UniProtKB/TrEMBL annotation:
Name by which UniProt lists this protein: Coenzyme A biosynthesis bifunctional protein CoaBC
Catalytic activity: N-[(R)-4-phosphopantothenoyl]-L-cysteine + H(+) = (R)-4'-phosphopantetheine + CO2; (R)-4'-phosphopantothenate + L-cysteine + CTP = N-[(R)-4-phosphopantothenoyl]-L-cysteine + CMP + diphosphate + H(+)
Domain of life: Bacteria
Gene that produces this protein: coaBC
Record-annotated DNA/pantothenate metabolism flavoprotein C-terminal domain positions: 188-399
Source species: Allostreptomyces psammosilenae
Stored InterPro entries: CoaB-like_sf, CoaBC, DNA/pantothenate-metab_flavo_C, Flavin_trans-like, Flavoprotein
Region described as Phosphopantothenate--cysteine ligase: 193-407
Family: In the N-terminal section; belongs to the HFCD (homo-oligomeric flavin containing Cys decarboxylase) superfamily. In the C-terminal section; belongs to the PPC synthetase family.
Length: 407
């Protein structure tokens, strides 16, 4: 790979083509050298001068443009990453069937680097059996096909099929590029994983709640990294402060009880469950229907607490499917490893990510360091670094245990 990674940005002919301009900007401003290859239909939405000006390179759609340089072969051969956004239903079908009727489909056939498709289309098109089969074919061949987002579509329609946020596609694409694995299916392809993220909030009254400092960054990094490695990801988010990662199904909850219900509902479909959310151990015994008032000269009444359900111990003891891997997190302030080992034994999970936390540590930061303890006695230190790096270590360990379970 060169010092400036070479990215091909393929653009399909959909209304979401305008969003690819932002994706192109993110790539170029972060030092990537980008060649834009739009389809002829894409140029009906955004013209070639725009792509050329933003990328600093000439734009072509046909194999006959600049034929002396053999672009239909060279562009794909020289790329470090190909990202197609938006990938329309038609473009997914042509790619799955190996058609080569324009420069972009020729590029896809000659690329020997990782390929990411970010679909965008109406819900009916995405859910059609033909599209689902084409997506399955591309994933089986090693491409990362991002799940589309849910939201407003063309016209008045709303549903699944919206192009994910360009920043999310960019983040996922950078993780794919960093791993640099091409020619085989991503190592979590065909796996369904469940991740919890953020911190639960237990209401005291209509204004206040009992919560914690978790921002959701580590849980979201786990979800984003799993998606980049080809997994189908369900993310249950509680009180998060960060944008949804691209390509994952998100369910929002508030309290520990809501989180438990969502986890128990989603766990039967998951090969692995990663409980990264900071779940409140206690909740107020009584909810005040009106705001608790401050009264001059009178001390407030004590607020009695009751225990919340232990979700990690529950799903560890009652595996929803054979071979399911369960990962917990332990945020400790003292005797970190000793408390972590005790918690691992008590909870019954397969892996426990243990880290030291505090007001200025981990919470709200983009970096983390931890030790991953295994029920088999293993101990995997993860040095201080981006939370995505810790996420990759966790998924490496999960992948190996899933492979062992499969035999």
């Amino acid at each position: 790979m060169t010092d400036r990674p070479r990215v091909v940005l393929g653009v399909g002919g959909g209304i979401a083509a305008y969003k690819a301009c932002e994706l192109l900007r993110l790539f170029t401003e972060s030092g990537h050298r980008v060649k834009v290859v739009p389809t002829a239909a894409a140029l009906e939405f955004v013209g070639a001068p725009t792509w050329a000006a933003l990328s600093g390179q000439p734009v072509a759609t046909e194999v006959w443009d600049g034929v002396h340089a053999v672009p239909h072969v060279r562009i794909g051969q020289e790329a470090d990453l190909v990202v197609v956004a938006p990938a329309t239903a038609d473009l997914l079908a042509r790619a799955a069937h190996g058609l080569a009727d324009d420069l972009l489909t020729n590029t896809l056939l000659t690329a020997r680097c990782p390929v990411v498709f970010a679909p965008a289309m109406h819900t009916e098109m995405w859910e059609h059996p033909a599209t689902r089969e084409n997506v399955a074919t591309l994933r089986r061949r090693g491409a990362v096909v991002v799940e589309p987002a849910v939201g407003r579509l063309t016209g008045a329609d709303t549903g699944k099929g919206r192009l994910p946020d360009p920043a999310g596609i960019f983040a996922l694409s950078r993780r794919v590029l960093a791993r640099g694995v091409a020619g085989t299916a991503p190592d979590l392809a065909g796996r369904h994983v469940l991740v919890t993220s953020g911190g639960t909030r237990e209401p005291l009254d209509p204004v206040r709640y009992l919560g914690n400092r978790s921002s959701g960054r580590q849980g979201h990094a786990l979800a984003a990294t799993a998606a980049a490695r080809g997994a189908e990801v369900t993310l249950i988010a509680a009180g998060v402060e960060v944008p949804d990662p691209a390509g994952v199904t998100v369910r929002r909850v508030g309290t520990a009880a809501e989180l438990r219900a969502a986890v128990l509902e989603a766990a039967p479909a998951a090969d692995a469950v990663v409980m990264a959310a900071a779940v409140a151990d206690f909740r107020p015994a009584h909810y005040a229907t009106g705001k608790i008032k401050k009264r001059d000269g009178v001390e407030p009444d004590p607020i009695p607490l009751v225990r919340n359900p232990d979700i990690l111990a529950e799903i560890s003891a009652r595996r929803a499917r054979p071979g399911q891997v369960v990962v917990g997190f332990a945020a400790e302030t003292d005797d970190v490893l000793a408390n972590g080992r005790a918690k691992l034994a008590r909870k019954g999970c397969d892996l426990l990510v243990v880290n030291e936390v505090g007001a200025e540590k981990v919470f709200g930061s983009d970096h983390n360091e931890a030790v991953v303890l295994g029920a088999d006695g293993s101990r995997t230190p993860v040095p201080h670094g981006p939370k995505e790096d810790l996420a990759d270590v966790v998924w490496d360990l999960v992948r190996d245990r899933l492979a062992d379970a499969r035999g």
